[in-house]
Amino acid sequence: MKKLLTATTLTAGIGAAMLGLDHGQEADAAEQTQTQSTNESTTQSASSGNLYTAGQCTWYVYDKVKW
Fold it and tell me: Which ranges are annotated Low complexity under compositional bias (predicted)?
């Protein structure tokens, strides 16, 4: 039973890779689009001591940790 589960999981992963299914990237793209649209409105309200708009620092750290 354990071998069947492993084989099924591997087959599903290979199939998803062949089809180009990567839900993580789709989610990142959607969130970045939303962040880009809100950056314009939040830039004016940012304090003088904070050079980042809402969410930018989080994305910077996420990109550094991700790789």
Answer: 30-48
